[in-house]
Amino acid sequence: MASEAAWVARENIISTLKNLERVAQDFVRYKTYLDGLKVEWFDDPVKLADLTQLLAEDPLYNPTNLADRYDATVTASDWLETNYLTLGQP
């Protein structure tokens, strides 16, 4: 029979993996929300011009940097959906 420490480790591992899966699902959900914001603000030239004025105040969040972050988010979300969230599914 397994030791109590092994049972605790098993529970901790399973719990942590389930938490990571929830975080991955949240990441994908937030990316979907971000898609809507991109369409609304970045794909509309008038709204983008208005937003760009505000973004110019913070060099970390300028339009180019945000576009790069968006692209990285899409890549990460796609990977999570394809490679992680499908693990153990038929």
Commentary on this structure:
The protein has 90 residues and is mostly helical. It has one domain. It is built from three helices and no strands. The protein has helices at 4-42, 45-55, 63-84. Helix 1 packs across helix 3. The longest helix is centred in the N-terminal third of the chain and has 39 residues, at 4-42. It is elongated. The model has no long low-confidence stretch (mean pLDDT 92).
What would a concise description of this structure say?
It is built from three helices and no strands.
Question: Given the C-alpha coordinates, what overall shape results?
Answer: elongated
Percent strand equals under 5%
N-to-C CA distance:
31 Å
What is the overall number of helices?
3
**CA gyration radius, whole angstroms:** 20 Å
Mean of all residue-level pLDDT scores: 92
Regarding quaternary structure, how should these chains be classified?
Answer: single chain
Return the string of H and E elements.
Answer: HHH
The overall number of domains is 1
Number of DSSP strand runs: 0
Topology:
Blueprint: H1 4-42, H2 45-55, H3 63-84
Helix pairs in contact: 1-3
Task: Summarize this structure as a short list of keywords or feature phrases.
elongated; mainly alpha
